[in-house]
Design goal:
By secondary structure, this protein is an alpha+beta fold. The chain has one domain. A two-stranded antiparallel sheet has the order 1-2. The longest helix has 11 residues.
């Protein structure tokens, strides 16, 4: 996990393709000592030819 500042989030969104085949979601990550909330990116347009 990484900490990303508010000023850097827009650049990360662009680099990850947010809105261009990718979306973001907030998820809970369970560790041995805590539950952390994180942002994850996931594909919204999937090319069947890429599946192996």
């Amino acid at each position: 996990m990484y900490s990303v500042g508010v000023a850097d989030k827009a650049g990360l969104d662009r680099a990850e393709g947010l809105g261009n085949g990718y979306a973001a979601a907030m998820v809970d990550v369970v560790t041995e000592g805590a539950v952390l909330t994180a942002c994850t990116y996931f594909a919204t347009r999937k090319d069947a030819a890429l599946r192996g």
